[in-house]
Specification:
The protein has 576 residues and is α+β, with helices and mostly antiparallel strands. The chain has helices at 94-98, 163-173, 179-186, 213-216, 225-231, 291-298, 312-317, 348-357, 360-367, 389-395, 400-409, 427-442, 454-462, 481-488, 503-513, 518-534; strands at 74-79, 109-111, 124-126, 129-135, 139-144, 189-196, 199-204, 245-250, 256-260, 274-279, 304-307, 323-328, 334-338, 417-423, 446-452, 470-474, 538-542, 545-550, 554-555, 573-574. Helix 12 links the parallel strand 14 and strand 15 (446-452). It starts with 73 loop residues before the first strand and ends with a strand.
């Protein structure tokens, strides 16, 4: 099966949370409408549907009350970065897509959110479509909603959305060198045809079970042809979409204001009247709840912030009263990988002993405040597609005694020295590396930890020589299951982080990638994870998550940030 070779590697190695990249702004105010010595206790699986309880001496974290929606009110958000311009097709910058001008646009499909959605989740639902089906020739046929109108702003003037608008937008996204080109090519999206005003055909060039995710990606916005034709591009053009929010203006302070669109096609949405997004950057542009953002939250000047796990203690000790909710996103955590071609890691027993010695649940508890989990660190359609935490503990990780037994059974009496290269990204990474070192020394290994700057580490891990033994680094920014597996675990992938030549692994990845039956694919994907752990290639000792901190009166707030989703902003309301 033909597979793409153009896959994004650790291009954002310096990020602790993907999607919170800080960019400089190029525009002024808008002028247009404006988680142990021996086996630990069985770990609990992380839940995204229930807020993580705070300590007894901290503000209580309550379950969201699902009352009757209340209309009105204005929500003020704090983003961690500004957006570079207004053209949603020319940049993959996250603020632009999900907390900037991108809020005004719709997509053909979107990722589901809400109280019934267990995270992580890549469950899709219609946005601009009413339904879709797959024809025998690997063509998806979409029926569009007939009630979608563009926002009533010139030069589009509120006309009906038609299939030609989607075909135009997708062709524009595929412009050579633009982010959408690789997004569509890697997912096998071929010809896109407007059959009539309300029918769209999407042809697949190869079977890819993740193909539709390209159309639901938060960057795959549908834009109006008239605006592109009049202004050339969208960097400084009017922001006109079919989404729930109208872009009003960007203030000289950097805040961006949106109002509810009266012509939005989903009845009663959005519930809020307005949203204001304030870019409140942290010192050094790190993803952190800095004192300024905390002060704004305490003063009631912002209603929602995203708190990285390492900042929870800071928030807990503050005087701020808040509610919170955890949004799971496995692919934004840490990855521990072993170079299978480096001595002594070409010995499977040594690799397995290393994995068995590591107690990641201790790390999650001590360094990540219990937020996050343990797994393969890849995006999955739902939690049931991940190996259960109890299976990880029973079979692969978290027991010093089993680690010693593996060494003894294989006559490895004097384990050789090991070198852990850790991405030099601050105290959090160094602390986890130190804990890995402690676990390995407890079973008899001699271990040295070396902080390595991100650029040098990228070369060591992915260069021709693959000059490393053990690496601890951020997970790569792959939003889909197949994108992650082909890059990180397939022997032909540009990442092949374990540096293996494992044809069994390759076959497992290839079979699940083309399996369109979700039940069969789920079982296949679980076997991929088991094989990777049995061979001790890599795993994520701390999978990723966001903690959203928000006003007590904000209800029905269930953010799912997979694939840069953002529709949940239209579904929340204030209780008073």
């Amino acid at each position: 099966m033909k597979r793409p070779t153009r896959v994004l590697l650790f291009l954002v190695l310096g990020l602790l949370t993907a999607g919170l990249v800080s960019c400089s702004s190029e525009e002024g105010p808008a002028t247009l409408p404006e988680k142990a010595e021996d086996t630990p206790a069985k770990p609990a699986a992380a839940s995204s549907a229930t807020p993580v309880p705070a300590p007894a001496d901290s503000p209580a974290v309550a379950e969201i009350d699902q009352g009757t929606p209340r209309r009105g009110g204005s929500l003020v958000l704090a983003s961690m970065a500004d957006y570079p311009h207004r053209d949603v097709h020319q940049s993959n910058q996250e603020t632009l897509a999900s907390m900037g001008p991108g809020l005004a646009y719709s997509r053909l499909l979107r990722v589901s959110s809400g109280p019934e959605v267990d995270q992580p989740s890549l469950v899709l639902e219609c946005d601009l479509c009413e339904s879709w089906e797959m024809a025998p020739d690997m063509t998806y046929v979409f029926q569009l909603r007939p009630d979608v109108a563009w926002q009533n702003l010139s030069p589009v003037d509120g006309r009906q959305l038609v299939a030609d608008d989607l075909a135009f937008s997708y062709e524009r996204m595929r412009t050579t060198g633009w982010p959408g080109e690789a997004r569509f090519t890697d997912r096998g999206i071929g010809e896109i045809e407007a059959v009539d005003d309300l029918t769209l055909k999407v042809h697949l060039e190869f079977r890819d079970a993740d193909g539709l995710l390209a159309l639901a990606d938060g960057h795959s916005k549908i834009v109006a042809p008239e605006v592109v034709e009049r202004f050339g591009d969208l960097r400084k053009a009017p922001v006109i979409g079919t989404g729930p929010w109208i872009f009003e203006r960007k203030l000289s302070s950097g805040a961006t204001e949106f109002t509810a669109s009266p012509s939005y096609f989903e009845p009663d949405l959005p519930y809020l009247d307005a949203i204001t997004v304030k870019a409140v950057k942290s010192a050094g542009d790190t993803a952190s709840v800095n004192p300024k953002r905390l002060a704004l939250l305490n003063a009631g000047q912002i209603d929602v912030v995203v708190a990285p796990p390492t900042d929870w203690t800071q928030l807990d000790r503050s005087s701020v009263e808040f509610n919170s909710r955890v949004s799971q996103q496995p692919e934004i955590g840490m990855v521990l990988s072993l170079n299978t071609q480096a001595e002594p890691l070409n010995n499977l027993a040594i690799r397995q002993s290393i994995f068995r010695a590591v107690d990641p649940w201790e790390y999650v508890d001590l360094d990540w405040q219990g937020q996050g989990g343990v797994g393969m660190g890849m995006p999955v359609p739902s939690p049931q597609w991940q190996l259960d935490q109890s299976e990880l503990l029973a079979s692969y990780l978290g027991s010093h005694s089993v680690a010693r037994d593996i060494l003894e059974d294989n006559d490895i009496i004097f384990p050789p020295a090991l070198e852990i290269a850790v991405a030099d990204l601050g105290p959090d990474y160094r602390r986890v590396a130190s804990q890995v070192k402690g676990d390995l020394e407890a079973v008899g290994f001699e271990v040295n930890v070396t902080p390595v700057d991100p650029a040098t580490m990228q070369e060591a891990m992915f260069g021709q020589d693959r000059d490393y033994q053990i690496a601890l680094a951020p997970a790569p920014p792959h939003p889909t299951t197949n994108g992650y597996l082909y890059s990180m675990l397939h022997s032909g992938g540009p990442g092949n982080i374990a540096n293996h030549d494992d044809k069994v692994m390759d076959a497992l990845i290839e079979v699940q990638a083309a399996e369109l039956d979700p039940v069969r694919r789920q079982g296949q994907l679980l076997e991929v994870q088991r094989h990777a752990l049995e061979q001790a290639y890599m795993f994520s000792p701390i999978t990723g998550s966001y903690r959203w901190v928000f006003d007590w009166n904000l209800e029905n707030f269930y953010p799912n940030t997979a694939l840069s989703e953002y529709h949940y902003w239209a579904e929340t309301w204030f209780s008073q």
